Amino acid sequence: MSTGRSAEARAVIEAVAEDLLSRAHRGVIVDSPPGAGKSTLVVELSGRLAATGERVMIVAQTNEQVDDLVSRLATAHPTVILGRLTAGDYEVPERLAPLRGPNLAFSSKLPELAAAGIVLATAAKWALVKEGEFPWAILDEAYQMRSDGLLAVAPRFADGTALFVGDPGQLDPFATVDTDAWAGSPWDPSDSAVAVVRAHNPHLPVHRLPYSWRLPATAAPLVAKAFYPFTPFDAGSDLEDRSLTFSAPGGGSPLDDALDIAADEGWAWHGLPAAHTIRTDAEAVEACAALADRLVRRQATAVDTAAGYQRTVTPDRIAIGTAHRDQAAAVRAALARPDRANRGLTDVTVDTANRLQGREYDVTIVLHPLSGRRDATAFHLETGRLCVLLSRHRHACIVVGRAGIADLLDAHPHAEPVRLGVAVKFPDGWAAHQAVLAHLGAS
Amino acid sequence: MPIAAVRHVHVSDEPLVLIPLMQAGEAAAPLAVMAGTAREDPKLLIVAQPRNRDQRFDFLTALAELLVPYILARRSHTETVEATKNREEWDRCTDAPQLILPNPGGVEALRLLGRSARFRTVDGPYPVDARVPLLGRYLTWFADDRAPMPGSSVCLALTSVLGQHWATGQSALEDQHLPALLSWIDPPRGMTGAEAALRAEDPDLVPPAGPSTDPAFDTGVLAPLVRAQEEARAAEDLRAVTKAEEELRIALAAQLEPTWQTVWRGIDVLRSLPAAASDQLRWQVDRGRFTDFMTGIEEGAPPQAKRPSAVAAARRLADLESAQQSYDRSQAIDDPLVLARYRVGGEAFAGRITFVDAERQEIKGKRAWPRPLVVLHTEDEVILRPGVKLASPARVAQTVRLRAVRPSPSGSGSEVELELQSGMGRGKTPEEGSVPLVGEERCYATFLAEQRGTRPDLPEAEQTPWTHGGPPWPYVPRAEEQAETWE
Question: How far is it, in rounded angstroms, from Cα B38 to Cα B17?
Answer without folding.
Answer: 8
